[in-house]
Design brief:
Number of strands: 17
Strand content: over 45%
Shape: globular
Number of helices: 2
Order of helices and strands: EEEEHEEEEEEEEEEHEEE
Structural class: mainly beta
Distance between the termini: 51 Å
């Protein structure tokens, strides 16, 4: 190779975000907050129609009709602010807001590694999954839709930005959830794992005459959960069979605390396998859905 390569170690300004006042427009003097990102994966897609005409076995033309910009953002949270933007219906940060996200990395320019910026604007949440497993860190995996994601550039194009300082806070883990993080109908249950997925089912609005998404409108929410509960009693099974909805909470962090509150959670299925090969305490796996959810 006659040019220097770059790696994730060459990230200069870690992924950071700021709320937009106008969708797709970064504030004039943005003050960014950093995200302890494990993975950021932009996926631009140029939607097109492959057009054929009579008399030819080969494609006649590929016709561009839309630019779609999505990205995956996976991280271990240190607070609930960004989670509120992915989950809540109301509040300072909620699913109806849009955000600008930025990071910089050293890239080759004429044989030298130079800091270059990538900016995603008009970012709106599509789906988020929160996973808590015994002995692991709390993980957030999310998919976002953006109006645009810029090419890498040596300038950010911002007027007077305040970039976020390097993060030093410790991400949450199954130790920081506190004891008895799960409650079902106000009763505590021990869990080996807990996972919930909230999908906002956004509508990407594109109008005739424009190639990019002009608006992202969240629609119906779908809320699903899975959990492995250490055997305690038959209450959850009874609620499953009667399909009785209950209030369910899961504490993600004891400081604050930060809690997911589910309204009318209902169990649809459970599995309590008994195996001669099993050497761990008996658990029952439950899956279900909820009418609503919020995070404080």
């Amino acid at each position: 190779m006659s040019y220097p390569i770059t790696t994730s170690l060459n990230v200069v300004k870690e992924l950071q975000w700021v709320k937009e006042t106008t969708r797709g427009v970064t504030p004039t003097a943005p003050v960014f907050a950093a995200i302890p990102t494990q993975e950021f994966s932009p996926v631009p897609e140029i939607e097109n129609i492959k057009y054929r005409k009579l008399g030819s076995p080969d494609l006649y033309k590929g016709i561009k009709v839309r630019e779609l910009y999505e990205f995956e953002l996976n991280y271990a949270p240190i607070d609930s602010t960004l989670l509120g933007a992915m989950i809540n219906l109301t509040g300072t940060h909620n699913r109806d807001n849009s955000y600008t996200m930025l990071l910089s990395q050293l890239h080759n320019q004429a044989g030298t590694l130079v800091e270059q910026f990538q900016i995603a604007r008009g970012c709106s949440i599509d789906e988020v999954t929160i996973t808590v497993e015994s002995g692991e860190i709390v993980m957030v995996e999310s998919t976002w839709i953006a109006s645009t994601i810029s090419d890498w550039s040596t300038t950010a194009g911002l007027t007077t930005p305040t970039y976020a300082p390097a993060l030093t806070a410790t991400p949450w883990s199954t130790v920081t959830t506190g004891v008895n993080p799960l409650t079902w109908n106000s009763q505590t249950y021990d869990v080996r794992s807990f996972e919930c997925t909230i999908s906002q089912n956004p509508d990407q609005v594109q109008v005739v005459g424009q190639t990019a998404t002009t608006w992202v409108q969240p629609t119906i929410r779908e809320i699903e959960f899975e959990m492995e509960v250490v055997w305690k009693d038959t209450t959850l099974q009874a609620d499953a069979k009667s399909h009785t909805p209950r209030t369910m909470t899961f504490q993600l962090n004891s400081t604050g605390p930060t809690t997911l509150t589910f309204t009318e959670a209902a169990i649809e299925e459970y599995d309590e396998t008994v195996s001669a090969e099993e050497t761990e305490a008996k658990v029952t796996a439950y899956t279900g859905y909820a009418k609503s959810v919020s995070i404080n």
